[in-house]
Amino acid sequence: MADGEGDPGVFTATALPGDPRLLPTVTNAFLGTRVFRDILHAAGVYSGAAGDTHRADVPSPLGLRMAAPGARSPAESFTLNTWTGTFSHTIQSPGYTATHQLYAHHSLVHLMAFSITIRRLDGSTHPISIQLQSLFVPQSQDLDLTPGPDFQGAHYIYGQTLVPEVEGGPRPTVHMLWTPIPQLLTLGGEERERCWEFLTAVAGSEEEAKRSYSTGLALAAAGSLHPSHVRAWAALRQGCSVELDGPLALRQALHGCLYYLLSAVPPRDSHGVLFHGISPGGLSNGTRGEDYWGHIFWDQDTWMFPSILLLYPEAARAILQYRIRTLQGARRNAQEQGYEGAKFPWESAATGREVCPEEIYGAQEIHISGDVLMAFEQYYCTTQDQKLFREDGGWELVEAVAQYWCSRMVWSEEEQLYHIRGVMPPDEYHSQVDNSAYTNAVARRSLNFATDMAQDLLLLVPEEWEDRAIKIKVPFDEDRKYHPEYDGYSPGEPVKQADVVLLGFPLMHPMSAEVRRNDLEMYEPVTDPAGPAMTWSMFAVGWLELKELQRAWSQLEKCFSNITEPFKVWVENLDGSGAVNFLTGMGGFLQVVLFGFTGFRITRSSLLFDPALPDNITKLKVSTISYLGNKLEVTITREEISMEVTQTSQDPPASPLEAVLESGQRFPLWEGQSVSFPTTSGWIQRSPS
Fold this sequence. Notes:
Largest sheet: 9 strands, antiparallel
Strand content: 15-25%
Distance between the termini: 40 Å
GO molecular function, one term: protein-glucosylgalactosylhydroxylysine glucosidase activity
Keywords: Glycosidase, Hydrolase
Shape: globular
CATH superfamily of the largest domain: Glycoside hydrolase, family 65, N-terminal domain
Domain Glycoside hydrolase family 65 C-terminal: 601-645
Mean pLDDT: 96
Domain Glycoside hydrolase family 65 central catalytic: 284-490
CATH topology of the largest domain: Beta-galactosidase, Chain A, domain 5
Number of domains: 3
Low-confidence stretches: none
Number of helices: 16
CATH class of the largest domain: Mainly Beta
Helix content: 25-40%
Structural class: alpha+beta
């Protein structure tokens, strides 16, 4: 991985950022914390009712810091290694080094661990001691915790959250076991090196917490606890490998995004472990007053999901299953607002009921239901997984969202079109508008997908779905040839964030290249430069689509202002406000690489490609594109595209593929055989043979 400029996946510093929110996170699908922090969070464990629902703070034994007593200004370094999924702090003193390693075990998701290693560097024989400075207190403002009996040398506490999300609803239970932590660790005079390992197991049941702790102890005793994590994490990184030849800052940003986003997804073969969605700042954040309280937004479905889908469809399925599990809550939301079907909440926690603290967003920012359904559509088009829809609740969700959109529309006699009135578009500077272009376009896409899905499942299609999809109004200015953001939008009005530009991608709303350009030209100069970080990635994708490489790069470059040093933690807004460890911005950035540079577009019948590499990027290699049960390695340079199927699914059997170029030339894609052709546009589809 290393080159003359250093390894782009290893971030090292000699000092920590002054703002503790910018410290790196160590997270797996169930547990997450920020390094040196005295709390952690467990997935799905919220406390507080309705708008006060927030991630419950679990006291963390992991938030300690090493110190060298008596040493005068020892050299210190702090490293986040994105290849091993491990954070480390090293103290270098004359005669010895002390290293603290911290990680959330990727495959044993109920386990977090840290180790302290002291290594003597000279021939001395005096004892060497390291202080462990900890803020840990086994109490929580969100949990009613009770101590239990020690287990295999570990201390034990357990308890429930204090306030349920909905009245009379469940209060999640937390069980935690941890290795007692001394204030001092000493390397004996006769010892050259010693490693101490400390485990923390957190689960929803006593049995699972004890099983995870015992497993961790056995692995630690065999010297394979950290190696087993590194192996599992490395397999994930290898299975989601994206590499490019270009500026170091771009490659570092890419590896940072992959580290933080992949930390949030479930490990392979994690059947039986419920997945609880991804909030804008991830599982490590979300205490009361932080990261929108850990709630799940469209950020997950629109901004993070597409890249996860291309690289790791099993994790994408887990995200969809979270939405299916919260369908009943979404039905209640629609019912309470006087509509049919299901309205997904603007902010979601464990139940699918609306938990946004401010009523206007839950009432008006209704595009979220279409955003959820678009993720289901993208998943179906790339996997053809009918089981999710036939047996696992997917169809009920699709049908319910289609019913909601139909009940939310009103017929305009004057225009002879359906309207959706009184909404807030993605641009949150405007509310109570009629016919938001984005909202109505995503509603149309929902109804078209519901119709197609019903036909594939051999179900009757309600006539109103097709009728309303055809007759819903999507505002368009015939004179200026652009899409006004809503009825009555005046050109030049300031916009908070990406809105109409999303019609081109990811919605792929039908339009000419001229209209696509006009939308970009119209909204780029009026979009708030201090708006949220994911915005510029969508302008970049738009300009890449039009082969305006310099304009695309200038938009992508804006993202770098939201990436903080030294650990590549993103902030939502330039002033540091909003969510930190902003996975939404990272998801947008990854879409520039995976959909912008490649030109990949997911359609009903194919995966389109139309590469566009900015001048300072010479090569892009994505090693594991998943499509119809195949894993594809795709390498793109300015001159050539090469593709190879590296793996095919046996159960269910993968569809054989072919690449078809715009010229009509066809290349069968057989497993283990690479094909190359000059860089051009085309598509990958099922092979008719």
